[in-house]
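Priority: low. Protein: DUF1934 domain-containing protein. Input follows.
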Amino acid sequence: MYLIIESRDSFGEKSSEKVSCQKEVTSKGIKYSYKNEHGDCKIFIFKDMVQITRKGVINSAQIFKDGKTTFFHYQTPYTSTKFTLKTTEMKQKKEGLFLSYEIYDGEEKVNDIEVAIKEVWN
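Result:
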């Protein structure tokens, strides 16, 4: 199976990637595991939250809760920073997910991001 992951941010940057992934369904939720240029990535979808982790060139663990504020560390070979993440919209569907969120460095908003994730079979 594959995931199509599309994103756009407040700077006009858009990306779209199709990644081969493994899907695991449990009583707690769904886990997608895949590799891309950033390293090993996992997306955990639970009833009321989503967690996206990356380990490799970029290391981070973001937690998304609709209408809530969370915190995450973003680490690369060049920087290690703690950010605030405000989830403004989270829609879970049978075979996909939509996230809209804001990232803050202290009190300063540094980006608005939208991400759409969809399962595909070819």
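Residues 96 and 118 are 4 Å apart (CA to CA). Residues 2-120 form a domain with the Lipocalin fold (CATH 2.40.128.20).
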